[in-house]
Design goal:
Elements (H helix, E strand, L loop, with lengths): L2 E12 L8 E8 L2 E6 L4 E7 L4 E4 L1 E3 L7 H4 L11 E6 L14 H12 L3 H7 L7 H10 L5 E7 H9 L1 H4 L6 H17 L3 E5 L19 H14 L3 E5 L6 H15 L3 E4 L10 H13 L4 E5 L4 E5 L22 H8 L2 H9 L7 H5 L6 E4 L13 H8 L3 H11 L5 E7 L7 H7 L4 E3 L16 H11 L8 H15 L16 E4 L5 E2 L3 E3 L8 E3 L2 E2 L1 E6 L2 E5 L2 E2 L12
Parallel strand pairs: 1-4, 1-5, 6-7, 7-8, 8-9, 9-10, 10-11, 11-12, 12-16
Antiparallel strand pairs: 1-2, 2-3, 5-17, 13-15, 14-15, 17-22, 18-21, 19-20, 22-23, 23-24
Helix pairs in contact: 5-7, 7-8, 8-9, 9-10, 14-15, 17-18
Length: about 575
């Protein structure tokens, strides 16, 4: 057999990303492109046996925060550990450019508060050898990494760059400010930004507890900046709306911006855990936007939106109790030893929380705080909550949580299910994901290093709804479509997420029967010795980017073909 191809994947079950029927066949790759699909006669310099395996496009992770990690690290994990070959960063309007030297500390303060990245990690890990957004993109383009990245122009740094201290202190933008931000937006899009991103969420706070620069920015400002995208002729508007003030009010922001700019919008949507299903009305609003000639897409987490709590992490159930300050600076082993003292136990179990970051209080909602063990259960029964266990044992939820920490020598983890777990089921998440204008998202890879590890959602979607489905299921072709081409189209990357002749060879070979998630773990590989949560998977036989195998049997190969994607 002559060696006609760089790589041939043999005998797999191919889900091509379109949502169409599965086919059995081979895929040939040369020069980073797919050259043939079906029966490939010529040999490959390298071949992968995909019999009894599924072959999919690389997944598109539309909501990440690898803005810093893509500079100080070559592996964009956890995302690349879960079949992702393209990651979109700059979400929520936080990032590192444009930025004058005097504003470095302010942007670190915003990113530390909103995305839980330790300030020292950013100060030590970033070279800050840019000022403008195009210069930042040039720095990213020079780096080596395993997967491709695309970047939004983030609102917070843009606002401060254009307005100075007035922008940081959230003063209204005047006509001159709006004109400058529109000009800078056009410049960023023409340099390769995928779009523009902002946050209106009230619980997005700076590290010192203040509101971020974009909070309550006038919609006129968003229209002006997205006008820069219209001037450039491309770009997607990404926004985190403040559902706490009501969808009727907040969704109007999308309607106004889409109508004024003509650009598509994508935003985060979730269900509450209890109360009326307000999200169904939002789906109707999305339908109306698309029926009227606009384009809006909601990003849905396939499992509960949640925090991971534990003594070694940013939050845990006792972190803001006054008595915790006595042992806060001790090692975990010393903390556990101190917690065995009856007096300290009584104090921590009975004390009220002091004020702090909103995440801390969310990890005290006993009705929705669950144990997280190995293998991790992201759809636990309600009776496993701290409140449920306490009711069964006739004690307080605080005691259940406290005893779990002692019994696990301080290593036990908790899942705080904040949303998307309506009535303790995944019914709402499944229904939203089934909607034609919804895609999977909100993995937040590269952020919330000490509290969230949701970048594994692609593996979860495949295991929960395809591999071992109960009453809620997606067929394989539909699930792969969501994770690949449907997600790519929503953020302006229509050529990605498809397996067809001539397409970029970003591919997964997956052992679906053996696919599983492992318990999140703490790794210490950040600049300045910082730690982060990471989550591994088993079952990815190969992940391929531009024709190069970057991971084989769930381990990195060391290949670094990842590139910066510059917009059209």
């Amino acid at each position: 057999m002559t060696m006609e191809h760089d790589l041939v994947i043999r005998g797999g079950t191919i889900a091509d990303g379109s949502g169409g029927a599965l086919i059995e066949g081979d895929i040939a790759i040369s020069n980073g492109k797919i050259t043939a699909i079906g029966q490939v006669t010529g040999g490959g310099r390298e071949e992968i046996d995909a019999r009894d395996r599924i072959v999919t496009p690389g997944f598109i992770d539309v909501h990440t925060h690898y803005d810093g990690q893509c500079i100080w690290a070559e592996e964009l994990s956890p995302s690349s550990s879960h079949g992702v070959t393209t990651a979109v960063m700059g979400n929520c309007g936080v990032g590192f450019a444009p930025c004058r030297k005097d504003d470095h500390d302010m942007l670190i303060n915003v990113m530390e508060g909103v995305e839980d990245i330790p300030g020292v990690v950013m100060a030590d890990g970033l070279p800050w050898n840019w000022e403008t957004f195009p210069e930042y993109l040039d720095t990213v383009a020079k780096g080596k990494r395993d997967i491709d990245v695309a970047a939004y122009l983030p609102h917070s740094p843009l606002r401060v760059y254009a307005m100075g201290e007035r922008g940081a202190s959230r003063e209204p933008a005047n006509a001159e400010d709006l004109a400058l931000m529109r000009k800078l937006s056009k410049e960023a899009i023409e340099a390769g930004a995928l779009g523009f991103a902002t946050s209106r969420l009230s619980i997005h706070k700076t590290a010192d507890g203040g509101s971020i620069p974009t909070f309550e920015a006038d919609v006129q400002e968003l229209e002006a900046i997205c006008g820069g995208m219209a001037d450039a002729g491309t770009g997607t508007f990404q926004v985190v709306l403040d559902a706490f003030v009501g969808w009727d009010k907040e969704y109007k922001v999308i309607e106004r911006v889409v109508e004024a700019s003509g650009r598509p919008a994508t935003f985060t949507l979730a269900s509450g855990n209890d109360g009326p299903p307000r999200w169904r009305k939002v789906l109707d609003m999305i339908d109306q936007t698309n029926a009227s000639g606009g384009k809006a897409t909601a990003q849905i987490m396939p499992r509960p939106i949640g925090l991971i709590a534990g003594l070694e992490l940013t939050v845990h159930p006792f972190v803001l109790c006054p008595s915790w300050s006595k042992i806060a600076d001790l090692s975990v082993e010393e903390q556990v030893a101190a917690m065995r003292d009856p007096q300290l136990r009584e104090a921590l179990i009975t004390e009220d929380f002091e004020k702090g970051h909103p995440f801390n209080e969310l990890a005290r909602d006993w009705n929705w705080l669950f144990p997280l063990d190995d293998p991790p259960d992201y759809a636990p029964p309600k009776e496993m909550s701290m409140a449920g266990q306490a009711k069964a044992k006739g004690c307080s939820p605080q005691e259940i949580a406290y005893d779990r920490l002692l019994e696990t020598e301080g290593k036990g983890l908790f899942l705080a299910a904040l949303g998307n777990y309506e009535d303790a089921t995944l019914d709402s998440a499944h229904e939203m994901l089934s909607h034609p204008h919804c895609i999977p998202g909100l993995g937040d890879g590269g952020a919330h290093y000490g509290a969230i590890c949701d970048a594994s959602y692609s593996t979860f979607l495949l295991t929960q709804f395809v591999q071992n489905p109960g009453k809620l299921r997606f067929d394989l072709a539909e699930a792969v479509h969501m994770l690949s081409h449907k997600a790519a189209k929503a953020v302006g990357l229509p050529k990605r997420g498809l397996l067809k002749q001539g397409a970029k060879a970003d591919i997964n070979v997956i052992n679906l029967e053996g696919l599983k998630l492992h318990l999140p773990e703490i790794v210490r590989d950040l600049p300045a010795g910082g730690q982060r949560l990471h989550q591994r998977a088993s079952g990815y036989d190969a992940t391929i980017v531009s024709g190069e195998v970057i991971r084989r049997f769930d381990q990195s190969t060391g290949a670094r073909p990842g590139q910066l994607i510059r917009s059209a």
